[in-house]
Amino acid sequence: MAGDQKAKAKKEQVKGKAKEAVGRAVGNERLEAEGRAGQSKGDARQAKEKAKDTFKH
User: Fold this and answer.
1) Contacts of 11 (CB under 8 A, 6+ apart)
2) Cα 42 to the center of its chain, rounded Å
3) How far apart are CA 15 and CA 26, in angstroms?
4) What pLDDT digit, counting tens, does each position of 1-50 carry?
5) Close Cβ partners of 12 (under 8 Å, ≥ 6 residues apart)
6) How far apart are CA 21 and CA 2, in angstroms?
7) Which pTM was predicted?
């Protein structure tokens, strides 16, 4: 399960980074903001999984 969540976090980060880059390239501030939000969501999920790993060991 943890590996699943880590992969999901990485996927969210990559998807957010791509969305932000596309938004910046076309001048769409909303898309850029959505990308940053996606990255933050992925970062939060990754931090949660790291914390769980720390307490597990």
Assistant:
1) 42
2) 2
3) 17
4) 578 888 999 999 999 999 999 999 999 999 999 999 999 999 999 999 99
5) 38, 39, 41, 42, 45
6) 29
7) 0.81
